[in-house]
């Protein structure tokens, strides 16, 4: 009677293993397949008979063998399960993704569990590998992260120019000012605006004025290093934070930008719009109370450039 119960239990267990919606593979210590459930059949295209006694690495050459062997040896040594999650390793075995809702993904994201299986002699002679399809969770999380990144980008970006908005570049300046005070690092701030911009708007219209602002922003982006922070101050006024650049380097950058804009020709509805920019440079190395004072210095230098005839660069305190 007990034998019949054990046999019934075995059949029930086998039925459960075959019907559950996870991959179940049992491997011996030579990594040969001994159990291969219907999930594995459906997603691999190989029947249990095809997979039986074959090497796991032969069936799945994409598996990083050295890594997997080390993982298994730790399971055997410690006698405890090991896990992998899709954030660290998108999949263990590459299965195609057939879910219609997450069909944009080419493969199945997987979490896996490697379990030690003790024999009656208490030795671990087999391992059970359980593969979970977590494509839906992974895709949703990735989409949410992408949306979060997009919202974060939009929250710090000026809509017209695509440059950093005032809130973001001022935070970066504040951080750079703190870094300078702590480590004595170099940095300079350039503020500039478009000369006689009101005349541009009055003569050619506000849409033409927007085109001029956008072209200046494009030219500015082309002159930046990866570490530079450029933004729109407001209206036709722009700022550039140049980390690790002193006042002399800031002047060189500003003068180069001034000359490029002077040669720039912006066409709007068949009309070429000539314009120039005036620039002010401030050095963070000068003793200052806070980052706002540095902005005031650069603004004062810009004012001097305008007062002295426009289309020129002035360094504060020079």
UniProtKB/TrEMBL annotation:
Its main location: membrane. The keyword Methyltransferase does not apply. Residues 185-318 form the GGDEF domain. Transmembrane segments: none annotated. It is found in: Cell inner membrane. Its cofactor is Mg(2+). The keyword Transcription does not apply. Keywords: Kinase, Transferase. This is diguanylate cyclase. It comes from Phytopseudomonas punonensis.
